[in-house]
Amino acid sequence: MIEIRDLNKKYKDFELNISLSIPKGRISGLIGKNGAGKSTTIKAILGLIRKDSGTVEVFGKDPRTLTPAEKQRIGVALAESGFSGYLNVRIVCTILKNMYSRFDEALFLKRCDELRLPLDKQIREFSTGMKAKLRVLTALSVNADLLVLDEPTAGLDVEARNEILDMLRTYMEQQPETSVLISSHISSDLENLCDDLYLIDNGKLLLHEDTDVVLDKYGVLKCDEETFKTLDQHYLLRTVKEKYGYRCLTNEKQFYQENCPGVVVERAGIDDLILMLTGGKKQ
Amino acid sequence: MKGLLIKDFHLAFRNSRNLLMFVIICLVMSLSLDPSFGVGYAILLMGTIALGTLTYDEFENGFPFLMSLPADAKTYVREKFLFCFLCELGGAIFGLAFAVLASLIRGQQIVLGEYLSFAAGVLPAMLLMLAIMIAIQLKYGVEKSRLVMILLYGGFAGIAVFIGAQKEKIIPVLPDIAAFLQKQPPVLLVGSLLLVLLLLIWLLYRLSVRIMENKEF
């Protein structure tokens, strides 16, 4: 569905270099800090920017050459862009009906009701959460083969976030063939959703791993300075000096659990990955 | 294309108070001035309203999402030109209706031919103006395009001053040009003028498509 090989995009103070691949039915997460290059990657996938070098292919074609009919197969929710705030949901529904042949109007209106989105109120009068829900709902209602969701839960309270995540989970259960790319800097959102994760920082890909592998094999070790010196550092990916000693990231959690009884080994969450891979000292 | 047209229609005429103002202003213009003037004013006003949809599209970073919808750069520009044309046509029809209504209220004779010829003169000129504005707004954005327009008007004024300074050379030639034009059949003159206008609008459309295709969001 999406194939990016050595994509390079230069700005005055930022450079993106990334490769990624999202096959049919895969749910991939794009994680990283703010300004890491997530939105630039998504813009390249949607053909909103021109690449300097490398290849970007969506459905086997350069996204900038996709026809309107081919673009109907993509559902998009962008973090900072959407329908004009001067429109209302009823008009948005009419627009979508006339732009997407597979738009499910009945489902869209049903979901609007469930999500308490008023049909006749101007979007600019919506709360941040309501706007985010509408953006995601729009993307989910077009029966797309590919979903591209840029920070769908950014800036939302817990309730609104959960509603959006529930909506996504339900959709993915019902449409297992759909490929999905979700970017987020809120890692817990992605842990239960994604099959694999791409971690980028400063425009570079730091890690690509299956979520299950991250949760099963990656761990955080905590030890004092003395223990650290005696530790087999062969499987440590990053270390961070702390007040109490060292905090280390490993992709062989079990090895340390079995062989280093004095070391605290914790499950590594995606937040730990981001923090340590983007801030820790490389071993 | 249809979806974009629906969007623009709702954005342009979202406010019923604005529409009412449009009707009142056109009626007042038609009643207080020459009814033909009301026709021109309706066309001008509708053009301004149509062009305003570009501002809505750009407002609050709307373009990235718009361009991720099933519409490519060409479709977007084509729709914008079509929407402006439809609005101008609507403006002309409303303007003519206001002119007839104003003539009836004022007890004047309805000179439909005069109103129509006025509309036929203003409409293509306004369409050309809109085509220029669309290209400039797409290239420079709403804010910068204001400055560009000021520079453009300044350029036109400069040309006018230059021509004025050359009047000694131009004035002797004018009677010859007028005589030549008078010899030509009116259909040929009007047809040539329309053809030139259409050609310019088509060139501006192509330019707008090129601008949009090269634009990054």
Question: How is this structure best described in words?
Answer:
- The complex is a heterodimer of chains A (283) and B (217).
- With 283 residues, chain A is an alpha/beta fold.
- Chain B is mostly helical and 217 residues long.
- In chain B, helix 5 crosses helix 6 and helix 6 crosses helix 9.
- Classes of the chains: A alpha/beta (283), B mainly alpha (217).
Describe how the helices and strands are arranged:
The complex is a heterodimer of chains A (283) and B (217).
Chain A: E1 2-10, E2 15-22, E3 27-31, H1 38-45, E4 53-58, H2 68-71, E5 74-77, H3 89-99, H4 105-114, H5 128-140, E6 146-150, H6 158-174, E7 179-184, H7 187-191, E8 196-201, E9 204-210, H8 211-217, E10 219-223, H9 225-230, E11 236-241, E12 246-250, H10 253-259, E13 264-267, H11 270-279, E14 281-282
Parallel strand pairs in A: 3-7, 3-8, 5-6, 6-7
Antiparallel strand pairs in A: 1-2, 1-4, 8-9, 10-12, 10-13, 11-12, 11-14
Helix pairs in contact in A: 5-6
Chain B: H1 2-12, H2 16-32, H3 35-58, H4 63-66, H5 73-106, H6 112-165, H7 167-170, H8 174-183, H9 186-214
Features of the shown structure:
heterodimer, A: 283 residues, alpha/beta, Rossmann fold, 2 domains, six-stranded mixed sheet, five-stranded antiparallel sheet, 11 helices, 35% helix, elongated, B: 217 residues, mainly alpha, 9 helices, globular
